[in-house]
Amino acid sequence: MPVSPVPPSGGPLPVRYSVETRWLHWLTAVMVLVQFAFGETWGFMPRGTVVRVGMIMTHTSVGVLLAATFLTRIVWAVTGGRAIRFPVRTPLDHVARMVHWLLYVMLGAEIVLGYMLRWSRGRPVVAFGVPINSPFADMGVGVQRVFGECHHWLAWGLIVVAAFHAMAAIYHAVICHDGVLQRMMPPRRQAG
């Protein structure tokens, strides 16, 4: 009978999420960071410049990809998607589960607000040169400002909650040595 390797903590080996789940997670994380970086920096570029327009167009295109990835994640989660179901035993388990749900709700709302910000002007969302026409007429500057402010501040909230999520994963890896972070990482290659 082969002996299973044991991590340095002496505990059980981490159970990994499926490759698809890990790809969806990291793809979402990268796109959220790109979206935030572009959304927070294009204001420093002069209006009408190629760089600023390019950043806005990239933000919109990546936003559509993010929406598609988010919907794929929802379908994947609802259909089972070879997800790992962990028992909720401690108050921290409850907090972790609530934070995951909060991230889903915040990201979904942020995506909707992005579309509504653009559509409230009566303009299409243009992704990779393809327009997604607005189902609404121009809603006026007041409504546009509300969508813009909500989109901006929810982005900051999402980044803060995601940062806590990342810090918790690092805490599990560095302090607890319990394999939580490894669940979302690819397996290490064996030497030789």
Tell me what you see in this structure.
With 192 residues, this protein is mainly α. Helices cover 61% and strands 3% of the residues. The protein contains 4 helices and 2 strands, in the order αααββα. A two-stranded antiparallel sheet has the order 1-2. A hairpin with a 2-residue loop joins strand 1 and strand 2. Helix 3 (91-119) packs antiparallel against helix 4. Mean pLDDT is 89; it is low at 1-8.
Compact description:
It is built from 4 helices and 2 strands. The chain is mainly alpha-helical and 192 residues long. The chain has a single domain (19-184), classed as Fumarate Reductase Cytochrome B subunit (Up-down Bundle).
List key phrases describing it:
disordered N terminus, metal-binding, 192 residues, Fumarate Reductase Cytochrome B subunit, mainly alpha, elongated, Cyt_b561_bac/Ni-Hgenase, 61% helix, 4 helices
Structural class: mainly alpha
Strand/helix succession: HHHEEH
Q: Helical stretch count?
A: 4
Nearest-integer average pLDDT: 89
Q: Could you give a short account of the major beta sheet?
A: 2 strands, antiparallel
Separation, N- and C-terminal Cα atoms? 21 Å
Task: Spell out the CATH superfamily.
Answer: Transmembrane di-heme cytochromes, Chain C
How many E-type strands? 2
What is the C-alpha radius of gyration, as a whole number of Å?
Answer: 20 Å
Helix content: 55-70%
Question: How are the elements arranged and paired?
Answer:
Layout: H1 19-41, H2 50-78, H3 91-119, E1 125-127, E2 130-132, H4 141-176
Antiparallel strand pairs: 1-2
Helix pairs in contact: 1-2, 1-4, 2-3, 3-4
